[in-house]
């Protein structure tokens, strides 16, 4: 049994839904379908979920919201017309919105219910469409599917008991179309995951039914080994391990959130990234383990927006608890850190820039000076991190040499190298302005000069 | 005014003391002389301090200790005879030992008093010898010099008020010979620094009198850029900064303990390492700042006996406080750590092997599993750290590339690279068996191929 999840661009309009139907029809194992809300049809378009957020916002402000609602209805109406389906769903949406705005729930719960309308309506439409094509399909509400979530509107978490319930889906024989992004609390209240939550639903359902494969349909043929905005027509990755995916997605790989995959990872369900617009392409497989490779590096990722907090104190390494007390201050101030490279008498803490506003900076520096009495403390902003990732990396003596040579050839100074903590990656810190040059040079060295 | 400190090999016998006297006589600025106890005269010899420790040990065990005392007396007698000095000192030693063993002090204090006899007697002998050569010299007891220490026998610390007192020495005109290694508590009790404490005395006195130069006489012409036991006839370092010295001495540079230099560093007193056996050689200057250099790396150091504690947990970097809690456990168990390289979901802690006995290891692993619930935790033993050090390092784009190439050429795999936390060093972790090969290759790349 396969679980196939179709993202926003795959269900953006009737034309896309026809492709989706073809994909479902072409493989009898595709039994469980998870869908997003319709995404953008072109770059100027607005996603249905954003239209729904606007609708909720208008309500929150006490403004008229007829126009916002109409825009949502229009999107679905265009789809229904082209697919020659009944327009009952449109009426449902309008009734439902009215009901939500008039029920006694708190605002956060109301807004979650509004946001979920996109996925929910699309799932209904797709199942009707499949039936109209003669397939044995039906819409399955997340409550029926067994998605029981914690009572945290907008950022709900799956509860462990769900998986056993979800497994019941394997008893059914028809194609089940489940809307992504939301579920229900034990008390029966609709709550959503965080944004992008359809991926989470897909991964949870795949884990629950112990699928043979979790297919994640998107609009690219596969995952590229480097950001295509930095390197033109980069190589495709045919196979990745979970660990590699996780490290790559940490720094700028935006195929999907690594977190979304945790449930599938835990059950060791293989994941395949495929293209709705080119379903014949092989796609990228994400697996638990892969065969030995003669390739040290599978991907290069980069991300900007980091700062480094540098603290030095003579004989720091003799002071038991120094590092811990520094991290304590950060924790106290609600700052999570990324890395803590340390020297003999120096410690740097790498933090995402958005975690350290200028106000926070002043507080943190002040506390460090007062509580740790360092010789030096300063902040370096505008740093970029570049990661090269590959399970095969550690069996090649020359990987570090190759990588550092690439930076030298790009004339980019290394502010930081962090290798050895992770078994599948090597991390480099540089000034933001060198990031494009450095990534291009790394691509040349690892993917073109072989 | 210069403060000159002579180490154990420089005062091992009469022949050496003649060299010392020449050195003192040759420069009128050498006003304050700090001496160690006589060291080894040849590789089979025993240092006087070790003889004194044996003496104390015999006393502690309630055994006869005449023989141990006699060996101490014999060492000094040989010196006195060859220098044609009165033997009063020998009688003093015997009386003093008897007095110490019979006083009412606790054992630790008695043992400190015994250990201090080596430096104290040698200082008396040297001052008499200088006088016999016609110099205006005298022995100055550390109490008179102003060395007031905390009441921690065997590991006493200098008290801040000492420096003002020590500064009074500048008022005197004669050559003052001060025994190293010990001082007195406020209550007048003799206490010693930790082993190697003559270096500490020298540095403290140099800081107190705000010397123009602190000369540290030893038995090498200068500091070498790499361990001569690994690379034959390596290049000498003519000038080092405090920071460079500190990083080098952390990993296997045994010229002296970096801690000993702190008082001098704080007062920015330049330090010169010189050779008693070849005082004409330029030596190595250790300074606060040095001129711009076209040399990225000044030295390579290496040390073995490290372990790495590896902890991984999926989504670790989202868990605020994870790293802090790990360090907390180590602190709780009295383990100080050296470095904490971290990946996305991984954290390694580098610890000196002697800090982590197998018993401690079991406790620590158990606590980590219970309190942090990681996915993986394991210990890697038998690691070596190699540091390349140089203030100029960061202005050279290619330093990391050069270094990693050296490891590749030596066919040594890099377990860890840590660069960027310290501004003057780059650290590499490898398996112990590769250390010689790797250091030789680094030497070739940084010191021979230029």
TrEMBL record, chains A, B:
Q: Which GO terms describe its cellular component?
A: cytosol
The record, for InterPro entries, names:
AceGlu_kinase-like_sf, ACT-like_dom_sf, ACT_Aspartokinase, ACT_dom, Asp/Glu/Uridylate_kinase, Asp_kin_monofn, Asp_kinase, AsparK_Bifunc_asparK/hSer_DH
EC nos: 2.7.2.4
- Superkingdom of the source? Bacteria
Q: Which residues bind substrate?
A: 49, 119
Task: Give all residue intervals belonging to the ACT domain.
Answer: 388-450
State the pathway, as annotated in the record. Answer: Amino-acid biosynthesis; L-methionine biosynthesis via de novo pathway; L-homoserine from L-aspartate: step 1/3; Amino-acid biosynthesis; L-lysine biosynthesis via DAP pathway; (S)-tetrahydrodipicolinate from L-aspartate: step 1/4; Amino-acid biosynthesis; L-threonine biosynthesis; L-threonine from L-aspartate: step 1/5
The record's catalysed reaction(s) read: L-aspartate + ATP = 4-phospho-L-aspartate + ADP
**Family, similarity comment:** Belongs to the aspartokinase family.
Q: What is this protein called?
A: Aspartokinase
Which species is listed as the source? Halolactibacillus alkaliphilus
- Its encoding gene is what? yclM
